[in-house]
Amino acid sequence: MPVLVDFSILRSDKLYMKKISLLLFFTMLLMMSCKTESDSKETSNTISSIKKDSVKSALKLIEKQKKEQENPNTFNCLDAVLAIIESSDHYKELTDGLADEVMKNNGTGIGFMVHVSPNPEKDQALEKGDFYEISLHESYPDRMVNRAFYRYDRHQNHLYILDIVSAEYEEITFNNQLKNQFKQNCAQ
To answer: pTM of this prediction?
Structure first.
């Protein structure tokens, strides 16, 4: 199952921390509500283990967020790629008013999903590759609708969009200043 990441949420640190806190709270609430008098000792131990794992995971996320806040000089290459995509005319035209339309149709917004990345663990990507492949999607409670597939070649510093009809990637332009920033901080 693909890991879905809405990176627009990560841009607001306070909102991100609140969401992690709520996730932790509801996980604990769910775990406590699952326990009944008829639970066996084994079920109780399993729930206890899940609670500990959930708390550990949430604490790791919070610790990671704190480290990133303490070191503002840390350059995130995925954020740079997302900024490159967002600076393209294609993205601007495609998303102009899109979030509002999605919300009117009972959606929750728009976001990115990372399919391929040179750092799949860090970027929560589905696969490891020598480039970035990212989709833009509309989010609804029951589905996600892909609107575009972008590919950023980190060696050539080119951005591509998938032409669905020909099933080929076509190069598109973006802000060249972001290209230089990526080269200085992320080129390997």
So the answer is: 0.61
Q: 9-27, pLDDT tens digit by residue?
A: 444 455 556 666 666 666 6
Q: Which residues of 82-110 are buried (b: 16+ CB within 10 A; e: fewer)?
A: bebbbbbebbeeeeeebbeebeeeebebb
pLDDT at 109 over 80: yes
pLDDT tens profile 46-86: 445 555 566 666 666 666 556 555 555 556 899 999 999 99
Dist CA 177 CA 111 (whole Å): 24
CA distance 134 to 22: 28
Of the candidates 101, 169, 104, the residue with the CA atom closest to the CA atom of residue 135: 169
